[in-house]
């Protein structure tokens, strides 16, 4: 089982803000990986850092992220783009597609760790928060 981590969960993990997580997300993130981080989530985190919406500069965020164990970035590539569910908004579609690509290519079950109500309602993958 691999956990695909959305931007809010990644931010909580990096900045020690576990109190902002749902109980399932907190249990998963405190229990360790393996974690997958879609490439677009890193881009979003970079933009948040640049706009000072996270408590650290990007260089520090990068250092902390690089120190996370059992965490892999899923690149945004044609395999991911092809799997984007058309009924979801861009961010949720990219998250779902990254998870599906990994699941299919690695023959491994995945769980999305996200507060997204749209992804829960979509039902294409298991979602916990």
Task: Walk me through the topology.
Blueprint: E1 2-5, H1 7-15, H2 23-31, E2 35-38, H3 39-50, H4 58-66, E3 71-74, H5 78-82, H6 90-106, E4 110-113, H7 117-122, E5 126-128
Parallel strand pairs: 1-2, 1-4, 2-3, 4-5
Task: Based on the model shown, name its key terms.
single chain, 129 residues, alpha/beta, Rossmann fold, 5-stranded parallel β-sheet, 5 strands, 52% helix
Q: State the end-to-end CA separation.
A: 16 Å
Bin the strand percentage.
5-15%
How many DSSP helices? 7
**Looking at CATH, which topology would you report?**
Rossmann fold
Largest sheet: 5 strands, parallel
Low-pLDDT segments, ≥5 res:
none
User: Average pLDDT value?
Assistant: 92
Alpha-beta classification: alpha/beta
**How would you describe the oligomerization state of the chains in this entry?**
single chain
Query: Could you give the order of strands across the largest sheet?
Result: 3-2-1-4-5
Let me know the number of strands: 5
How do the SSEs run, as a string of H and E? EHHEHHEHHEHE
Helix content: 40-55%
CATH architecture: 3-Layer(aba) Sandwich
The whole-angstrom Rg is: 14 Å
Provide a brief overview of the structure:
Helix content is 52%, strand content 15%. By secondary structure, it is an alpha/beta fold. It has one domain (2-128): Rossmann fold (3-Layer(aba) Sandwich), CATH 3.40.50.1010.
Structure description:
It is a single chain. The protein is α/β, with parallel strands linked by helices and 129 residues long. The protein contains seven helices and five strands, in the order E-H-H-E-H-H-E-H-H-E-H-E. Strand 4, helix 7 and strand 5 form a beta-alpha-beta unit. It is globular. It starts with a strand and ends with a strand.
